[in-house]
Design goal:
393 residues, mainly alpha, Rossmann fold, 15 helices
Length: 393
């Protein structure tokens, strides 16, 4: 069975239990035992033995406690929890006997853990276990501390082993994912179904594919293959480094306004943002170059020479006096304005993972840019220095 998490609940809390099960299964790469789903208990097996074995194998025992958990009564007006044969009570008793199993009460509907005197002696020690309160209206947000705790408990399973099919799918569905990120980034975030580690791997793949597309567009601009190779190598390395440093800055800015999302979610979103930005940026440049090629073929040759480091021929013709150059600048200006609007819209995705207000989102946006822009300028200078140093060698 290899169970890592055991989910215990009373039938009156089934809806919340099923929702918690689905959310944890989407976020954690581990086996979760819930008696009525996914054949947790094989057909024909002996129920008590299966439950006892599952609890013994578990690293954590998650106990959902709603208003009726300790209050519900049978036809004889006896609390169900007072019945020694009640399965929730038996599960708790089994878990309390296993010192290596972490017991985590999940408190629903604003209830508190019952006092020791309110519980049967067999499970009275439950009152000493620290729990987490979850509100029905903020279910997704309130479980974040629970997920972070469980990530630490299940350990190495957070980052699943590489899946070749997943990598192939990333290439096949790249355009579909790109369109969703471009048109409805917040809905894309709500559809995150991979584990935190799995989503990071997927987003890094997305960024890598975007950089490959960027390379295909930029290669024709360079006749010197050595300089082109050095440039692309430096940009590849610096892009991934910038994704990590930007994610750290974004997390810091959101923590400043009360954000609680883990670093892995910031990294995933930042890789997606960089990937879309790279492709849109290079497509915009390609469109401007195409316009110049149509309007002024000689000018495009001078721009290629300038891209390889020789600016004198381009300066000599006063490019701003050429209609093609001015039209391309207008196109680049309008395109970058649209990119800035999309960037702020995409920032709403960070608000989504932090469940924050619009005011907090705006404050985090200002704070992040105040830090990121100067550091970004330094990164560009470092990139230029590395490029010149390596290409001259």
């Amino acid at each position: 069975m290899s169970v890592q998490l055991f989910l215990s609940y009373s039938r009156s809390d089934y809806r919340s239990a099923r929702l918690l099960y689905e959310l944890l299964r989407a976020r954690l790469h581990c086996k979760i035992f819930m008696d009525v789903v996914d054949n947790s208990i094989p057909l024909g097996s002996f129920f008590p033995e299966e439950v006892e074995q599952a609890i013994a194998e578990s690293s954590a025992f998650i106990l959902l406690m709603g208003k009726a958990w300790a209050a519900k009564r049978d036809s004889s007006d006896r609390r169900l929890i007072d019945d020694p044969n009640n399965w929730v009570r038996r599960e708790v008793a089994l878990a309390l006997k296993k010192k290596e199993v972490r017991i985590i009460p999940v408190l629903l509907d604003g209830i508190s853990i019952p006092a020791r005197t309110e519980l049967p002696e067999e499970i009275s020690a439950l009152s000493y276990h620290h729990g987490i309160a979850i509100r029905d209206a903020e279910f997704d947000h309130d479980i974040e501390p629970l997920v972070e705790t469980l990530e630490g408990i299940v350990g190495g399973e957070i980052f699943p082993p590489p899946d070749v099919k997943l990598f192939v799918a990333d290439f096949v569905y790249y355009a579909h994912r790109f369109a969703k990120l471009l048109m409805m980034p917040k809905r894309m975030v709500r559809a995150f179904t991979a584990t935190p580690g799995g989503e990071v791997i997927r987003s890094l793949m997305f960024l890598a594919i975007s950089l490959m597309i960027y390379c295909l567009f930029i290669m024709p601009l360079y006749s010197d293959r050595h300089r082109m190779g050095v440039l692309l190598f430096v940009q590849f390395c610096m892009s991934f480094l910038m994704a990590f440093y930007s994610s750290a800055i974004f997390q810091l800015s959101w923590r400043f306004v009360g954000g609680t999302a883990p670093f892995s979610r910031y990294l995933s979103l930042t890789c997606y943002y960089f990937g879309v930005n790279f492709v849109l940026g290079i497509c915009l440049v390609a469109a401007a170059m195409g316009l110049i090629t149509i309007m002024d073929p000689h000018l495009i040759h001078l721009l290629q020479v300038a891209a390889e480091g020789d600016l004198k021929p381009l300066i000599a013709i006063h490019p701003l006096s050429r209609n093609a150059f001015r039209a391309a600048l207008w196109m680049l200006g309008a395109g970058n304005l649209l990119l800035m609007i999309w960037t702020y819209a995409f920032w709403g995705s960070y608000r989504e993972i932090n469940r924050a207000t619009r005011f907090a989102s705006f404050a985090a946006f200002v704070f992040a840019n105040a830090i990121a822009l100067p550091i970004g300028a330094i990164f560009i200078l470092i990139q230029e220095f590395l490029f010149n140093r390596l290409s001259s060698g």
